[in-house]
């Protein structure tokens, strides 16, 4: 088992530097897949009400035999529950689904600015934290305007902003904005979700140099930039490889070259947070 390094969030809580994403990991098979990841050393488990995997995450934690306090569990608020009371009830419902007494991190999944209820949702997360339902609160897919608005309205800064980040979409501007506020950045689809990034000759050459695979190079590039990659893997082999990225470092030149792979339309599924209407 690989012991993970950790970051300190702006509220003082510790979070592992890599996490397991559980999108499309569900049911009894999902429980087994999460268990193998736990056995490989994963302690940051990222789920969402929209992923339908909250129950599997909770059951895997119970079956692992490892104390709850050793895990960092994240879930997310769906867009249809952005109103204050709805959001609080959904947080409670997610706790019931997982069988946990608290979440380490709770995120607003998407800002949905066309509906413009995300400030109300953020106020609900603040209230949930005060009630002890969650320990840290944050957002997902928020851009500068969305961050500015919730901070100005409430005075509360998110601990995390989880965004789409991979070599074709490196999010340099957003990283600077998050750092300005002291917000830690997480990456969803950190490998580009089956894109050609894993086949880039530049990344292949770097992988050969370090005796790693291209996925490990991309994940290390994320960590070197101060980002927590949330990576989905169902096979034990892939899970072990993804977490085995803490025994080498990339040079500044290598990091810059990978970042320079950025593409104008680099998003994996054209999900612009200012336009995207979250599935509900």
UniProtKB/TrEMBL annotation:
The keyword Secreted does not apply. Residues 17-261 form the NADP-dependent oxidoreductase domain. The active site is at 51 (proton donor). InterPro entries: AKR, Aldo/ket_reductase_CS, NAD(P)_OxRdtase_dom_sf, NADP_OxRdtase_dom. The keyword Oxidoreductase applies. The record marks 76 as: Lowers pKa of active site Tyr. Keywords: NADP, Oxidoreductase. Its EC number is 1.1.1.274. GO terms for molecular function: 2,5-didehydrogluconate reductase activity. Substrate binds at residue 109. SUPFAM superfamilies: NAD(P)-linked oxidoreductase. Coiled coil: none annotated. Belongs to the aldo/keto reductase family. This is 2,5-diketo-D-gluconic acid reductase B. It comes from Lactococcus lactis. The lineage of its organism: Bacteria, Bacillati, Bacillota, Bacilli, Lactobacillales.
């Amino acid at each position: 088992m690989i012991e993970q390094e950790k970051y300190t969030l702006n509220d003082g809580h510790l979070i592992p530097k890599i996490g397991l994403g559980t999108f499309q990991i569900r049911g009894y098979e999902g429980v087994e897949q999460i268990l193998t990841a736990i056995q490989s050393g994963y302690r940051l488990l990222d789920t969402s009400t929209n992923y339908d995997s909250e129950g599997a995450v909770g059951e895997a934690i119970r079956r692992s035999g490892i104390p709850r306090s050793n895990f960092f569990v994240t879930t997310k608020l769906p867009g249809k529950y952005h109103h204050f009371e709805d959001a609080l009830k959904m947080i409670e419902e997610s706790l019931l689904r997982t069988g946990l007494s608290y979440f380490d991190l709770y995120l607003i999944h998407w800002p949905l600015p066309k509906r413009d209820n995300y400030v109300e949702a953020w106020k609900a997360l603040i209230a949930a934290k005060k009630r002890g339902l969650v320990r840290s609160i944050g957002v997902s897919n928020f851009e500068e305007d969305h961050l500015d608005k919730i901070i100005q309205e409430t005075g509360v800064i998110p601990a995390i902003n989880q965004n789409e980040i991979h070599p074709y979409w490196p999010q340099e501007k957003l990283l600077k904005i998050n750092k300005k506020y002291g917000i830690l950045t997480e990456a969803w689809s950190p490998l580009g979700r089956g894109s050609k990034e894993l086949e880039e000759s530049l990344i292949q050459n770097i992988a050969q140099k370090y005796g790693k695979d291209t996925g490990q190079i991309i994940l290390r590039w994320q960590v070197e930039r101060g980002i927590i990659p949330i990576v989905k893997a169902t096979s034990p082999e892939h899970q072990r490889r993804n977490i085995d990225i803490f025994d080498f470092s990339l040079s500044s030149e290598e990091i810059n070259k990978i970042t320079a792979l950025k593409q104008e339309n680099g998003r994996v599924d054209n999900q612009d947070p200012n336009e995207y209407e979250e599935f509900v």
